[in-house]
Amino acid sequence: MLQVKNLSYEVVENGQKLKIIDDISFDVADGELLVITGPNGGGKSTMASLLMGIKPQTAGQIILDGEDITGYDIDHRAKAGLGFAFQQPPRFKGMTVKHLIQLSSGGELSEDASCQLLSNVGLCAREYLDRQVDSSLSGGEMKRIEIATAFSKPHKLCIFDEPEAGIDLWSFSMLVQQFEEIHKKKKESIIIISHQERIIQMADRIMVIRDGRVQQIGTKEEVMPLLLEGDGDAGCKYMKH
C-alpha cells in the first residue's frame, strides 16, 4: 500500500513562495488502479515527480508497504518497488533500445522477451532492438519504448504519466489492454495520470487534482458522473473521449 500524507511542494518565483502541491493526502491499496485527472497545470505531473523522488517535497510523508521512503532518492525508491514512466521520456544517445530494456528489467532478458515487451506497446519489435534511444526516434516511439521499460519488471506500484500522449489509436488500444491485464492480476498497484475517458473508466478510484489540491477523490461510480457533467470545476472540458 502507498500512503501519502500532507504532501506539499513549493517554489520561489520573483521572491515569492508559490505552492504547486498543497497539503495532499491519499492512499493506494494493494492491487488498486488509481487514475489522477484534472485540468492542465493543476499539479498532476508534479505530484508524480514527488512520488518518484524526481523533485524533493517541501513537506509531507510517503510510505510504501510500511516503509518510510520520504527521504529516499529516485534510485532507492525504485529499489523499494516504485516504477515510473515519464510523460516526456529522456533520450540516451549511444544506448540501444535493447540495452535500455535490459537495464530497466534489472536482469538478463532474452531477445524474445524484449521483443514481446515492444510488441505489447505496438512496435515492430526486431526493427527497434538495435536502434539508439536518441533523436532518430519520434516522440510516439519514445513514449512506447518508455512504457515497455516500465512493463519490463514487476513493481509494488508503478506510475504512468499520461501514457496515451503522442501515440496512435491502435497502439493506445494495445496499451489499454496491457493495463487491463496487469490490473486483473492484482499483483501490483497502478497510478495513471490521464485525460482519456477510456483509461479513467478502468479506475477503481479517481482523484481530481486542481490548483495543487485534491478536488475530489472516490470510486469511479462517485466521481465519473461529475466529470461527465462538466460543471465548470470537475468537468469533461479537460477529459478526452
Automatic annotation (TrEMBL):
GO terms for MF: ATP binding; ATP hydrolysis activity; transmembrane transporter activity
SUPFAM superfamilies: P-loop containing nucleoside triphosphate hydrolases
Keywords: ATP-binding, Nucleotide-binding
Keyword Translocase: no
Cellular component GO terms, alphabetical: plasma membrane
All residue ranges annotated as the ABC transporter domain in the record: 2-236
The keyword Nucleotide-binding belongs to this UniProt entry's keyword annotation: yes
Superkingdom as given in the UniProt entry: Bacteria
Cross-referenced InterPro entries: AAA+_ATPase, ABC_transporter-like_ATP-bd, ABC_transporter-like_CS, ABC_transpr_LolD-like, P-loop_NTPase
PANTHER family given in the database record: IMPORT ATP-BINDING PROTEIN
Protein name: Fe-S cluster assembly ATP-binding protein
